[in-house]
Design goal:
Elements: H1 2-19, E1 24-29, H2 38-47, E2 52-58, E3 63-68, H3 75-84, E4 90-91
Antiparallel strand pairs: 1-3, 1-4, 2-3
Length: 93
């Protein structure tokens, strides 16, 4: 009985991973970044958003990039999170 349960649980986990949305990427323009600590703050603001898988920010290009689950969060919500952290941001088209 225990073996059947573990096989069933593994099958359910596999099915869930197959049905999960493919991660998406967005680049945000963040023109207000102007010091070495700004990218750290922007990255942390993105990482706090549920659904964000990976985030990075670059002072040189004044942009941030996030890999996220599109079923949990949108590019607009990510831009809003960065804006709410004090760095007005817009999704790049």
């Amino acid at each position: 009985m225990r073996r059947i349960f573990s096989v069933s649980a593994a099958a359910l986990a596999l099915a869930a991973s197959v049905l999960a949305a493919e991660p998406a990427r967005v680049v945000l323009d963040v023109p207000a970044m102007n010091c070495a600590l700004c990218p750290v703050s922007v990255k942390k603001a993105l990482e706090r958003v549920p659904g964000v898988i990976e985030a990075k920010a670059d002072l040189a290009t004044k942009s941030a990039e996030a890999k996220y689950d599109p079923e949990k969060v949108s590019p607009e919500a990510l831009a809003r999170a960065v804006t709410n952290a004090g760095y007005p941001a817009t999704p790049r088209k």
